[in-house]
Amino acid sequence: MKSFRRIIQFAKPYRNSIILNILFNLLSITFALISIGLVIPVLRLIFGNAREAVPQSESGEGLIDYFQDKLAYEVGQRISEMGQADALLYVCFWVVGAFFFKNLFNYLALFSIARLRNGVTRDIRLALHKKILELPISFFTEQRKGDIISRMTSDLKEIEWSILMTIESFFREPIMILGSLVILVWMSPALTVFVLVLLPVVSLIVTSIGKSLKRSSSKAQKKMGELMSKTEENISGLKVIKAFNAEEQKKGLFRQTVDGYFHLMNSVMRKNDLASPLSEFLGSVVMAIVIWYGGGLVLEDGSFTAEKFIAYVLFFYQIIPPAKALSKASYHIQRGNASSERVLEILDAENPIKDKDDARGIGDFKEEIRFEDVSFAYEEKEVLKNIALRVPKGKMIALVGQSGSGKTTLTNLVPRFYEVEEGRLTIDGKEIKNLKINDLRALMGVVTQESILFNESVYYNIALGNPRATLDEVIQAAKIANAHEFIEKMEQGYQTNIGDGGNKLSGGQRQRISIARAVLKNPSILILDEATSALDTESEKLVQDALYKLMENRTSLVIAHRLSTIQHADEIIVMENGIIAERGTHSELLDKKGIYHKLVEMQKFQ
Fold this sequence. Notes:
By secondary structure, the chain is of the alpha/beta class. 64% of the residues lie in helices and 10% in strands. It contains 22 helices and ten strands. It has helices at 2-8, 15-37, 39-47, 63-82, 84-134, 137-141, 145-152, 154-187, 189-236, 238-243, 247-300, 306-317, 320-347, 407-413, 437-442, 458-462, 471-480, 484-488, 507-521, 537-551, 586-592, 595-604; strands at residues 368-378, 381-392, 396-400, 422-427, 430-431, 444-448, 525-529, 555-559, 571-576, 579-584. The strands form two sheets. A six-stranded mixed beta sheet has the order 6-7-8-3-9-10, with helices on both faces. Helix 3 packs antiparallel against helix 12 and helix 9 runs antiparallel to helix 11 (247-300). It is elongated, with a radius of gyration of 37 Å. The protein starts with a helix and ends with a helix.
């Protein structure tokens, strides 16, 4: 329950809604008890036992006795004035009125809690999204996207229901039970004590099933995350699945996951659905015992009249629905607790890449980027080993080598997508760990092999790093990136939506929009990660031309697959197995007849 208690803290800003809910519930319960209490004079009229009574406020018999005498007196007065039939109609009118106000206040209680229910869900979802954007990229290499989406959707839905059940049940139902018990104790202390001995037994049975439900719910929520991950993977990789005739294979794997979720949810729902009938059956057993024991008191004790016993049974029955509601709430809380643990795994995730308390700002880039014996590993796999590299301002440094040699990892350390583990990485002599992350990344523009675009307009995607940019500035950036011509031909120009991931555009068009985005940001340091390797020859020429314009007078770190694109680099770094194997200009490296020379020769035949 620790996880659920932490999630409940999100309800604090909505304490006014809770107060109103409690107030309206109290009024609803009051009128519910009054409506049952009004049954006694009705029964007396039917049984012909109605009598006049003068209420005695100082009789010392208590508030309930006073109101009972007052009610009996009023009924007796109506019989005298109107006759027994009309008096019965009069009492029934008040019964209907009591039920009307009971249900009115019950609705107002639900009305007031709606803001809390939706507000807490909204706030948790916002907190999750904020945390996801703050966490380092390394966190998501170990997580399934579908599972994270599941935590923001189905897990939050469970929490939403749990919160509603908690607020409604744990503020309303105990009050109803307590109020009914007070009246029952007043009506027959002996019978009520007998009843109270039976209730803990019922509670123990319900609690044991609730613990089992939490375990099953936790497994089901994890399986739902796996299900959403496979769905996302299959949609993203649909082209490959079809190309390799893997539909049946994927159907089989997906069916296994769905069947696993099916069996788990069967277990969860069976246990959840058991709450209501089990508590009702146990309640009926207790009710039968009450009728048996209480009926005996009526037969033996003349003071405990038949109408009073019937009213007692009706008041006792008022305990059963809230007891059922509490047992159902307990089940929902167990399920919500399992979901809460999954949500808190993200909210509590440690972010190792964050500003130090004494982090310094950096406004511009003046001299150089320097790697000093930098090493890095993914978990236990060492990727970079003692890298020593200097990137002077205004120079183009190219990184080449086979896949897995550490090129991308090296460039990811500069904007602190990953943290340097050993050695030092400095900008203008300042270790980047001591700089403010936002200031550091403000100096940089990144263009990757896979164009990351969003399901928004062309304008939005280009202006992502500079949301205050005017349309003229966006157009100018697009012209430099050789993108303006095709954008103008689109149906709504720069306001055209480009679809999910830019799927309405060709690969070359997507890449040029990515370049335009970097141009508009006007960064001091440019990182290009194989920005042209996935393009056809014509598109590559347009993109490469845009890149040359972008790199002009900038400091550039360029990862290149096609070596023809980096022949004019100021220095070429050849990486192999996480170390710098060779370095020099294009002509120098060719003369060495080493790794670079072999790579160039291989590409001549491609």
